[in-house]
Amino acid sequence: MTTVATAVGEIIGPLSVGPIAHGGHCIARHEGRVIFVRHTIPGETVMVRITDDSHERYWRGDAVEVLDAAPGRVEPPCPIAGLCGGCDFQHIAPAVQRELKTTVVRELLHQFAHLDSDVTVERVGTDDSGQDWRTRMRYGVHDGKVGLHVHRSADLVGLAPQGCLIAEKAGRDPKMLDSLAGQVHGDELIVATAASGVCVIDSGRTLMGEAVVTEQVGTHSFRARADGFWQPHRLAPGLLTSQMLLALDPRPGEHALDLYCGVGVFAAALDDAGCRVRGIEMDGPAIRLARTNVPRAQFVAGRVDRVLSRGRHRADLVVLDPPRAGAGKRAVDQIAGLRPRRIAYVACDPAALARDLASFARHDYSVTNIKGFDLFPMTHHVECVATLEPTR
Fold this sequence. Notes:
Elements: E1 11-16, E2 20-21, E3 25-30, E4 33-38, E5 45-52, E6 58-68, H1 94-113, E7 121-122, E8 136-142, E9 145-149, E10 156-158, H2 174-181, E11 188-194, E12 197-202, E13 205-208, E14 212-217, E15 220-225, H3 236-248, E16 255-259, H4 265-272, E17 276-281, H5 284-293, E18 298-301, H6 304-309, E19 317-320, H7 329-337, E20 342-347, H8 350-361, E21 365-373, E22 383-390
Parallel strand pairs: 4-6, 7-21, 16-17, 16-19, 17-18, 19-20
Antiparallel strand pairs: 1-5, 2-3, 3-4, 5-6, 8-9, 8-11, 9-10, 11-12, 12-13, 14-15, 20-22, 21-22
Helix pairs in contact: 1-8, 3-4
Keywords: Methyltransferase, S-adenosyl-L-methionine, Transferase
GO molecular function: rRNA (uridine-C5-)-methyltransferase activity; tRNA (uracil(54)-C5)-methyltransferase activity, S-adenosyl methionine-dependent
InterPro entries: MeTrfase_TrmA_CS, NA-bd_OB-fold, SAM-dependent_MTases_sf, TRAM_dom, U5_MeTrfase_fam
Protein backbone atom coordinates (compact mmCIF):
# COMPACT_ATOMS: atom_id res chain seq x y z
CA MET A 1 0.00 0.00 0.00
CA THR A 2 1.31 3.42 -1.00
CA THR A 3 1.46 6.06 1.74
CA VAL A 4 0.76 9.61 0.59
CA ALA A 5 2.97 12.19 2.29
CA THR A 6 1.06 14.94 4.04
CA ALA A 7 2.05 18.18 5.69
CA VAL A 8 -1.12 18.41 7.82
CA GLY A 9 -0.12 18.95 11.44
CA GLU A 10 3.39 20.10 10.54
CA ILE A 11 4.50 23.43 12.05
CA ILE A 12 6.44 25.64 9.67
CA GLY A 13 8.02 29.06 9.93
CA PRO A 14 8.83 31.65 10.83
CA LEU A 15 6.59 33.11 8.12
CA SER A 16 6.06 36.76 7.27
CA VAL A 17 2.35 37.51 7.05
CA GLY A 18 1.18 39.44 4.00
CA PRO A 19 -2.15 41.09 3.15
CA ILE A 20 -5.61 40.25 4.42
CA ALA A 21 -7.76 38.15 2.07
CA HIS A 22 -11.49 37.55 1.84
CA GLY A 23 -12.50 34.73 4.16
CA GLY A 24 -10.88 35.63 7.48
CA HIS A 25 -7.30 34.71 6.72
CA CYS A 26 -4.08 36.42 5.65
CA ILE A 27 -1.68 35.42 2.89
CA ALA A 28 1.78 34.05 3.66
CA ARG A 29 4.24 32.15 1.48
CA HIS A 30 6.45 29.16 2.13
CA GLU A 31 8.87 27.83 -0.49
CA GLY A 32 6.84 29.53 -3.21
CA ARG A 33 3.47 28.15 -2.08
CA VAL A 34 0.64 30.38 -0.88
CA ILE A 35 -0.62 29.60 2.62
CA PHE A 36 -3.91 31.05 3.87
CA VAL A 37 -3.31 31.63 7.57
CA ARG A 38 -5.97 32.24 10.23
CA HIS A 39 -5.53 33.98 13.60
CA THR A 40 -2.95 36.47 12.41
CA ILE A 41 -2.67 40.10 11.19
CA PRO A 42 -0.79 41.55 8.19
CA GLY A 43 2.80 42.41 9.09
CA GLU A 44 3.26 39.75 11.77
CA THR A 45 5.83 36.99 11.93
CA VAL A 46 4.31 33.69 13.00
CA MET A 47 4.73 29.94 13.24
CA VAL A 48 1.98 28.10 11.35
CA ARG A 49 0.43 24.65 11.77
CA ILE A 50 -0.77 23.27 8.42
CA THR A 51 -4.43 22.26 8.54
CA ASP A 52 -5.10 21.49 4.86
CA ASP A 53 -2.64 20.49 2.14
CA SER A 54 -5.17 19.04 -0.31
CA HIS A 55 -4.68 21.79 -2.91
CA GLU A 56 -1.60 21.85 -5.11
CA ARG A 57 -1.43 25.64 -5.39
CA TYR A 58 -2.12 26.57 -1.77
CA TRP A 59 -2.35 25.25 1.75
CA ARG A 60 -4.31 26.40 4.81
CA GLY A 61 -2.94 26.87 8.28
CA ASP A 62 -3.40 28.36 11.74
CA ALA A 63 -0.95 30.69 13.43
CA VAL A 64 0.10 28.88 16.61
CA GLU A 65 2.87 31.21 17.79
CA VAL A 66 3.30 34.93 17.21
CA LEU A 67 6.98 35.90 17.08
CA ASP A 68 6.45 39.53 16.11
CA ALA A 69 2.98 40.97 16.78
CA ALA A 70 1.35 43.70 14.70
CA PRO A 71 -0.34 46.76 16.19
CA GLY A 72 -3.96 45.95 16.85
CA ARG A 73 -3.40 42.48 18.29
CA VAL A 74 -5.37 41.94 21.52
CA GLU A 75 -6.10 39.05 23.87
CA PRO A 76 -9.27 37.32 22.59
CA PRO A 77 -12.12 37.81 25.08
CA CYS A 78 -13.38 34.24 24.53
CA PRO A 79 -11.20 31.31 25.68
CA ILE A 80 -12.24 29.11 22.71
CA ALA A 81 -11.71 31.81 20.05
CA GLY A 82 -8.79 29.92 18.49
CA LEU A 83 -10.74 26.66 18.33
CA CYS A 84 -14.29 27.65 17.34
CA GLY A 85 -14.74 28.42 13.66
CA GLY A 86 -17.24 31.24 14.20
CA CYS A 87 -15.03 34.19 15.16
CA ASP A 88 -12.12 34.92 12.82
CA PHE A 89 -11.03 38.22 14.35
CA GLN A 90 -11.24 38.06 18.15
CA HIS A 91 -7.48 38.57 18.30
CA ILE A 92 -7.85 41.95 16.55
CA ALA A 93 -9.04 45.24 18.07
CA PRO A 94 -12.48 46.18 16.68
CA ALA A 95 -11.25 49.37 14.95
CA VAL A 96 -8.52 47.38 13.19
CA GLN A 97 -11.05 44.70 12.21
CA ARG A 98 -12.99 47.41 10.35
CA GLU A 99 -9.82 48.64 8.65
CA LEU A 100 -9.11 45.12 7.37
CA LYS A 101 -12.69 44.66 6.19
CA THR A 102 -12.48 48.00 4.39
CA THR A 103 -9.37 46.77 2.58
CA VAL A 104 -11.10 43.56 1.53
CA VAL A 105 -14.26 45.31 0.26
CA ARG A 106 -12.27 47.84 -1.76
CA GLU A 107 -10.03 45.17 -3.29
CA LEU A 108 -12.96 42.94 -4.27
CA LEU A 109 -14.82 45.86 -5.85
CA HIS A 110 -11.72 46.68 -7.87
CA GLN A 111 -10.99 43.06 -8.81
CA PHE A 112 -14.46 41.97 -9.91
CA ALA A 113 -16.30 45.21 -10.74
CA HIS A 114 -13.38 47.46 -11.76
CA LEU A 115 -14.57 50.02 -9.20
CA ASP A 116 -12.11 52.19 -7.31
CA SER A 117 -14.24 52.93 -4.27
CA ASP A 118 -13.48 54.89 -1.11
CA VAL A 119 -16.04 52.87 0.85
CA THR A 120 -15.28 52.55 4.56
CA VAL A 121 -16.72 49.83 6.79
CA GLU A 122 -18.48 51.72 9.56
CA ARG A 123 -18.99 50.93 13.21
CA VAL A 124 -22.60 50.13 14.16
CA GLY A 125 -24.09 51.27 17.46
CA THR A 126 -22.39 52.62 20.55
CA ASP A 127 -20.98 49.33 21.91
CA ASP A 128 -17.63 48.62 20.30
CA SER A 129 -16.87 45.45 22.25
CA GLY A 130 -17.98 43.19 19.38
CA GLN A 131 -20.04 41.16 21.86
CA ASP A 132 -23.72 40.50 22.62
CA TRP A 133 -25.15 41.24 19.16
CA ARG A 134 -26.15 38.00 17.47
CA THR A 135 -29.85 37.12 17.75
CA ARG A 136 -29.71 33.85 15.79
CA MET A 137 -27.36 31.00 16.70
CA ARG A 138 -26.84 27.44 15.47
CA TYR A 139 -25.18 25.06 17.90
CA GLY A 140 -24.02 21.52 17.33
CA VAL A 141 -25.09 18.78 19.74
CA HIS A 142 -23.17 15.58 20.53
CA ASP A 143 -23.61 13.14 23.42
CA GLY A 144 -25.98 15.48 25.20
CA LYS A 145 -23.61 18.44 25.08
CA VAL A 146 -23.93 21.67 23.11
CA GLY A 147 -20.96 23.14 21.26
CA LEU A 148 -19.75 25.11 18.27
CA HIS A 149 -18.09 23.77 15.17
CA VAL A 150 -14.36 23.87 14.62
CA HIS A 151 -13.39 25.79 11.48
CA ARG A 152 -14.07 23.73 8.31
CA SER A 153 -14.91 20.67 10.42
CA ALA A 154 -17.81 18.65 11.78
CA ASP A 155 -16.02 18.43 15.13
CA LEU A 156 -17.40 20.41 18.06
CA VAL A 157 -15.72 22.44 20.76
CA GLY A 158 -17.53 22.87 24.05
CA LEU A 159 -18.89 26.27 25.01
CA ALA A 160 -16.99 28.60 27.28
CA PRO A 161 -18.49 29.03 30.79
CA GLN A 162 -20.09 32.34 29.78
CA GLY A 163 -21.39 30.94 26.49
CA CYS A 164 -20.75 32.37 23.03
CA LEU A 165 -19.85 36.02 23.61
CA ILE A 166 -21.19 37.32 20.31
CA ALA A 167 -24.62 35.81 21.03
CA GLU A 168 -27.19 37.94 22.82
CA LYS A 169 -27.06 37.27 26.55
CA ALA A 170 -30.70 36.19 26.92
CA GLY A 171 -30.19 33.10 24.75
CA ARG A 172 -26.61 31.99 25.38
CA ASP A 173 -26.55 30.42 28.85
CA PRO A 174 -24.68 27.08 28.46
CA LYS A 175 -26.58 25.53 31.40
CA MET A 176 -29.90 26.34 29.75
CA LEU A 177 -28.70 24.92 26.42
CA ASP A 178 -27.28 21.76 28.00
CA SER A 179 -30.54 21.21 29.89
CA LEU A 180 -32.31 21.07 26.52
CA ALA A 181 -29.66 18.95 24.78
CA GLY A 182 -31.06 15.73 26.24
CA GLN A 183 -34.32 16.34 24.35
CA VAL A 184 -32.59 16.79 20.99
CA HIS A 185 -33.37 14.27 18.23
CA GLY A 186 -30.92 15.70 15.70
CA ASP A 187 -27.44 17.17 15.93
CA GLU A 188 -28.27 20.88 15.99
CA LEU A 189 -30.01 23.45 18.14
CA ILE A 190 -31.27 26.75 16.72
CA VAL A 191 -31.64 29.58 19.21
CA ALA A 192 -33.52 32.78 18.33
CA THR A 193 -33.45 35.72 20.72
CA ALA A 194 -36.36 37.87 19.55
CA ALA A 195 -38.28 40.85 20.87
CA SER A 196 -40.95 38.40 22.01
CA GLY A 197 -38.52 36.11 23.85
CA VAL A 198 -36.13 33.20 23.36
CA CYS A 199 -37.02 30.23 21.16
CA VAL A 200 -35.01 26.98 20.88
CA ILE A 201 -35.68 24.59 18.00
CA ASP A 202 -34.41 21.08 17.25
CA SER A 203 -35.13 19.49 13.87
CA GLY A 204 -38.31 21.52 13.48
CA ARG A 205 -39.49 20.81 17.05
CA THR A 206 -39.87 23.72 19.44
CA LEU A 207 -38.17 22.94 22.76
CA MET A 208 -38.61 26.39 24.26
CA GLY A 209 -40.63 29.47 23.39
CA GLU A 210 -42.73 29.95 20.25
CA ALA A 211 -41.80 28.75 16.76
CA VAL A 212 -43.05 32.03 15.28
CA VAL A 213 -41.53 34.98 17.09
CA THR A 214 -42.27 38.70 16.95
CA GLU A 215 -39.61 41.24 16.00
CA GLN A 216 -39.82 45.02 16.13
CA VAL A 217 -38.39 47.36 13.47
CA GLY A 218 -39.29 50.99 14.06
CA THR A 219 -43.05 51.20 14.53
CA HIS A 220 -43.67 47.86 12.79
CA SER A 221 -44.02 44.43 14.37
CA PHE A 222 -43.03 41.46 12.22
CA ARG A 223 -43.85 37.80 12.73
CA ALA A 224 -40.97 35.57 11.66
CA ARG A 225 -40.09 31.90 12.02
CA ALA A 226 -37.45 31.40 14.68
CA ASP A 227 -35.57 29.05 12.33
CA GLY A 228 -36.09 31.24 9.26
CA PHE A 229 -34.02 34.13 7.94
CA TRP A 230 -33.71 37.26 10.03
CA GLN A 231 -30.78 39.65 10.04
CA PRO A 232 -28.68 38.36 12.97
CA HIS A 233 -27.35 41.66 14.34
CA ARG A 234 -29.98 43.20 16.59
CA LEU A 235 -29.49 46.64 14.99
CA ALA A 236 -29.34 45.40 11.39
CA PRO A 237 -33.04 45.45 10.35
CA GLY A 238 -33.52 49.08 11.35
CA LEU A 239 -30.17 50.25 9.98
CA LEU A 240 -30.55 48.50 6.63
CA THR A 241 -34.13 49.72 6.25
CA SER A 242 -33.03 53.33 6.69
CA GLN A 243 -30.14 52.85 4.26
CA MET A 244 -32.48 51.27 1.70
CA LEU A 245 -34.81 54.27 1.91
CA LEU A 246 -31.90 56.70 1.51
CA ALA A 247 -30.70 54.76 -1.53
CA LEU A 248 -34.09 54.55 -3.29
CA ASP A 249 -35.66 57.88 -2.24
CA PRO A 250 -39.16 56.43 -2.87
CA ARG A 251 -42.03 58.59 -4.10
CA PRO A 252 -45.74 57.97 -3.50
CA GLY A 253 -47.34 55.95 -6.28
CA GLU A 254 -44.11 54.37 -7.53
CA HIS A 255 -43.92 50.63 -8.21
CA ALA A 256 -41.35 48.91 -6.01
CA LEU A 257 -40.00 45.37 -6.06
CA ASP A 258 -38.64 43.82 -2.86
CA LEU A 259 -36.60 40.83 -4.03
CA TYR A 260 -35.55 38.03 -1.64
CA CYS A 261 -38.03 39.82 0.62
CA GLY A 262 -38.16 37.42 3.57
CA VAL A 263 -41.02 38.39 5.88
CA GLY A 264 -41.40 41.87 4.36
CA VAL A 265 -39.23 44.28 6.37
CA PHE A 266 -38.22 46.41 3.39
CA ALA A 267 -41.67 46.02 1.83
CA ALA A 268 -43.24 47.57 4.93
CA ALA A 269 -41.02 50.65 4.72
CA LEU A 270 -41.74 51.09 1.00
CA ASP A 271 -45.44 50.66 1.65
CA ASP A 272 -45.23 53.37 4.32
CA ALA A 273 -43.63 55.63 1.69
CA GLY A 274 -46.69 55.22 -0.52
CA CYS A 275 -45.25 52.77 -3.03
CA ARG A 276 -47.08 49.91 -4.69
CA VAL A 277 -45.01 47.01 -3.46
CA ARG A 278 -44.51 43.48 -4.72
CA GLY A 279 -42.25 41.08 -2.86
CA ILE A 280 -40.69 37.90 -4.20
CA GLU A 281 -39.19 35.16 -2.03
CA MET A 282 -38.75 31.42 -2.58
CA ASP A 283 -39.36 30.53 1.07
CA GLY A 284 -43.08 29.77 1.20
CA PRO A 285 -43.53 30.10 4.99
CA ALA A 286 -41.77 33.49 4.90
CA ILE A 287 -44.09 34.67 2.13
CA ARG A 288 -47.14 33.63 4.14
CA LEU A 289 -45.88 35.66 7.10
CA ALA A 290 -45.05 38.61 4.84
CA ARG A 291 -48.66 38.72 3.68
CA THR A 292 -49.81 39.17 7.27
CA ASN A 293 -46.97 41.57 8.13
CA VAL A 294 -47.61 43.89 5.16
CA PRO A 295 -51.20 43.25 4.05
CA ARG A 296 -51.31 46.04 1.45
CA ALA A 297 -48.36 44.65 -0.51
CA GLN A 298 -48.42 41.73 -2.96
CA PHE A 299 -46.16 38.77 -2.38
CA VAL A 300 -45.17 35.94 -4.71
CA ALA A 301 -43.46 32.69 -3.71
CA GLY A 302 -40.77 31.45 -6.07
CA ARG A 303 -37.21 31.87 -7.26
CA VAL A 304 -36.56 35.51 -8.09
CA ASP A 305 -35.15 34.90 -11.58
CA ARG A 306 -38.00 32.54 -12.51
CA VAL A 307 -40.76 34.82 -11.20
CA LEU A 308 -39.27 37.83 -12.99
CA SER A 309 -39.06 35.87 -16.23
CA ARG A 310 -42.83 35.24 -16.12
CA GLY A 311 -45.52 37.79 -16.79
CA ARG A 312 -45.26 41.54 -16.73
CA HIS A 313 -43.65 43.45 -13.89
CA ARG A 314 -43.34 47.17 -13.28
CA ALA A 315 -40.53 48.57 -11.19
CA ASP A 316 -39.52 52.15 -10.64
CA LEU A 317 -37.51 50.94 -7.65
CA VAL A 318 -35.88 47.64 -6.73
CA VAL A 319 -34.35 46.50 -3.47
CA LEU A 320 -32.64 43.12 -3.39
CA ASP A 321 -31.09 41.32 -0.46
CA PRO A 322 -29.94 37.99 -1.93
CA PRO A 323 -28.32 35.10 -0.08
CA ARG A 324 -24.56 34.93 0.33
CA ALA A 325 -24.00 33.59 -3.20
CA GLY A 326 -25.50 36.78 -4.67
CA ALA A 327 -28.27 37.31 -7.20
CA GLY A 328 -26.44 35.86 -10.20
CA LYS A 329 -26.40 36.85 -13.86
CA ARG A 330 -29.90 35.66 -14.74
CA ALA A 331 -31.59 37.61 -11.96
CA VAL A 332 -29.48 40.70 -12.73
CA ASP A 333 -30.50 40.47 -16.39
CA GLN A 334 -34.17 40.32 -15.40
CA ILE A 335 -33.90 43.24 -12.95
CA ALA A 336 -32.00 45.46 -15.37
CA GLY A 337 -34.52 44.66 -18.09
CA LEU A 338 -37.22 46.39 -16.00
CA ARG A 339 -35.16 49.64 -16.11
CA PRO A 340 -35.86 50.83 -12.54
CA ARG A 341 -34.71 54.35 -11.84
CA ARG A 342 -32.88 53.20 -8.72
CA ILE A 343 -31.70 49.90 -7.28
CA ALA A 344 -30.63 49.27 -3.67
CA TYR A 345 -28.47 46.15 -3.37
CA VAL A 346 -28.03 44.84 0.19
CA ALA A 347 -25.18 42.33 0.32
CA CYS A 348 -23.65 40.13 3.02
CA ASP A 349 -20.77 38.99 0.78
CA PRO A 350 -18.63 41.64 -0.93
CA ALA A 351 -17.28 39.22 -3.55
CA ALA A 352 -20.77 38.24 -4.71
CA LEU A 353 -21.79 41.91 -4.63
CA ALA A 354 -18.86 42.90 -6.82
CA ARG A 355 -19.61 40.19 -9.38
CA ASP A 356 -23.25 41.27 -9.58
CA LEU A 357 -22.29 44.94 -9.86
CA ALA A 358 -20.15 44.00 -12.86
CA SER A 359 -23.20 42.33 -14.40
CA PHE A 360 -25.32 45.44 -13.78
CA ALA A 361 -22.62 47.57 -15.43
CA ARG A 362 -23.07 45.57 -18.64
CA HIS A 363 -26.68 46.80 -18.60
CA ASP A 364 -25.59 50.43 -18.21
CA TYR A 365 -26.20 50.67 -14.47
CA SER A 366 -23.54 52.45 -12.42
CA VAL A 367 -22.89 52.54 -8.69
CA THR A 368 -23.61 56.02 -7.34
CA ASN A 369 -23.01 55.18 -3.68
CA ILE A 370 -21.80 52.27 -1.59
CA LYS A 371 -21.60 51.91 2.16
CA GLY A 372 -20.18 49.21 4.40
CA PHE A 373 -21.32 48.30 7.91
CA ASP A 374 -19.68 46.11 10.53
CA LEU A 375 -22.79 44.06 11.26
CA PHE A 376 -20.75 40.91 11.99
CA PRO A 377 -18.07 42.04 14.48
CA MET A 378 -15.41 39.52 15.47
CA THR A 379 -15.90 37.76 12.13
CA HIS A 380 -14.65 38.49 8.60
CA HIS A 381 -18.20 39.08 7.35
CA VAL A 382 -19.44 42.53 6.38
CA GLU A 383 -22.68 44.05 5.09
CA CYS A 384 -22.78 46.52 2.19
CA VAL A 385 -25.51 48.63 0.63
CA ALA A 386 -24.94 49.77 -2.96
CA THR A 387 -27.06 52.28 -4.88
CA LEU A 388 -27.31 51.89 -8.67
CA GLU A 389 -28.81 54.14 -11.31
CA PRO A 390 -29.06 53.81 -15.11
CA THR A 391 -26.41 55.71 -17.03
CA ARG A 392 -28.74 56.26 -20.00
